[in-house]
Amino acid sequence: MNRSPIIALDFPAPDDAYAFLRNMPSGLCVKVGMELYLQNGPDVVGRLKEMGHEVFLDLKLHDIPNTVGRAMEGLARVGADMVNVHAAGGSDMMKRALDGLEAGTPAGKKRPALIAVTQLTSTGEGQMNSEQGIPGTLLDSVIRYARLADDSGLDGVVCSVLEASAIRDACGENFLKVTPGIRMADGDLHDQKRVSTPTDAARAGSTHIVVGRAITQAADPAAAYETVKRLWEER
Ligand SMILES: O=C(O)c1cc(=O)[nH]c(=O)n1[C@@H]1O[C@H](COP(=O)(O)O)[C@@H](O)[C@H]1O
């Protein structure tokens, strides 16, 4: 995907997403997540592609290797540019996901990029320690998952901006660091815990930022998008 900010189209229905996009610039990077996809199916991805947008299909698959591999084989035909799994599913699952994507990608088409969620940006360190039973720092857990994803052949990870530079050191410049949890300096955090601004994301080495409510719920979403894009590109 190109490096423009990825707008999370977290809407219940395709018509809501299309209405939102009517007032936005063309040729965007957008994200279709569970809310839109699970209620409406794959057509929305094809339609967004026809409209000229690049699409990150964010379904965060996490199941046994065979199930994820076969699901990815099907998803490869949906036409997204990027898809994801949870790194916690393990190395076998991630390798099967990649094999499935490769097997399902139609001849002559580019395989969608495959990235793995490390620790959700809504997770804090105390919660990780007590609820997931993972001791140590959140940064250590994220780096561990990033290395596992890299060793499994994936193209990158989803992480917060706070871990992006350490992942660059561990996995290299070209390994994707897709960072949600983006807020303007005075923005509402909502349910996110590990947040940063577009400026800090650019400085920390994020390769992509994912921005939802800071744009979609702004009074003027097009102006909010332009501000995010300008700050992100002023790297
Ligand atoms: O995989 C994701 O996109 C994702 C991973 C993560 O750790 N945190 C996270 O917020 N996301 C997604 O990024 C978007 C963030 O939305 P906002 O918090 O509204 O900017 C949502 O669509 C989330 O599903």
Write structural notes for this entry.
Keywords: Decarboxylase, Lyase, Pyrimidine biosynthesis. Residues 4-228 form the Orotidine 5'-phosphate decarboxylase domain. This protein is α/β, with parallel strands linked by helices. It has one domain (6-233): TIM Barrel (Alpha-Beta Barrel). Helices cover 45% and strands 15% of the residues. The protein is built from 11 helices and 8 strands. It has helices spanning 14-22, 34-40, 43-50, 65-75, 91-104, 125-132, 138-151, 161-171, 198-204, 213-216, 221-233, and strands at 6-8, 29-32, 54-61, 82-86, 113-117, 156-158, 176-179, 208-211. Strands 1-2-3-4-5-6-7-8 form an 8-stranded parallel β-barrel, surrounded by 5 helices. α4 packs parallel to α5 (91-104), α7 (138-151) crosses α8 and α9 (198-204) packs parallel to α11. It starts with 5 loop residues before the first strand and ends with a helix. The mean pLDDT is 98. The chain binds orotidine-5'-monophosphate.
The beta-strand count equals 8
List bound small molecules.
Answer: orotidine-5'-monophosphate
Say what the CATH topology is.
TIM Barrel
Describe the global form: globular
User: What is the percent of helical residues?
Assistant: 40-55%
Structural class: alpha/beta
Gyration radius, rounded: 17 Å
Strand content: 15-25%
Please give the CATH architecture: Alpha-Beta Barrel
- Helix count, per DSSP? 11
CATH homologous superfamily?
Answer: Aldolase class I
Top-tier CATH class: Alpha Beta
Number of domains: 1
Strand ordering within the main sheet:
1-2-3-4-5-6-7-8
- Low-pLDDT segments: none
What is the ordering of alpha helices and beta strands?
EHEHHEHEHEHHEHEHEHH
